[in-house]
Amino acid sequence: MSHSSTKSSNPLAALLSVFQCENPIQSALQSLKQLILPLIGMLVFLLIWDIGAKNIHTSLGTFPGPAQVYEQTVGLIDDHQAERQKEVAFYERQEKRNAKKLEKNPDAKIKVRPYTGKPTFFDQIGTSLITVLAGFFFASLIAIPAGIMIGLNQPLYSALNPLIQLFKPVSPLAWLPLVTMVVSAVYVSKDPMFAKSFITSLVTVSLCCLWPTLLNTAVGVSGISKDLQNVSQVLRLSFFTHVVKIVLPSSIPMMFTGLRLSLGIAWMVLIAAEMLAQNPGLGKFVWDEFQNGSSNSLGRIMVAVLVIGLIGFLLDRIMLLIQKKVSWDKTAILR
Amino acid sequence: MTTTHLELTGVDIEFPTPDGPFKALDNVNLKIKKGEYISLIGHSGCGKSTVLNIVAGLYQATKGGVLLDGKEVNEPGPERAVVFQNHSLLPWLTAYENVELAVNQVFKGKKSKAEMKDWIEHNLSLVHMTHAMHKRPEEISGGMKQRVGIARALAMEPKVLLMDEPFGALDALTRAHLQDSLMEIQNELNNTVIMITHDVDEAVLLSDRIVMMTNGPEATVGEILEIDLPRPRNRIALADDPQYNQYRAAVLSFLYEKQRKPDTGETSQKPAEEEKLAHNLQSEETKGEVSMTETTADSEKVKAA
Question: Alpha-carbon torsion A289, A290, A291, A293, what sign?
Answer without folding.
Answer: positive
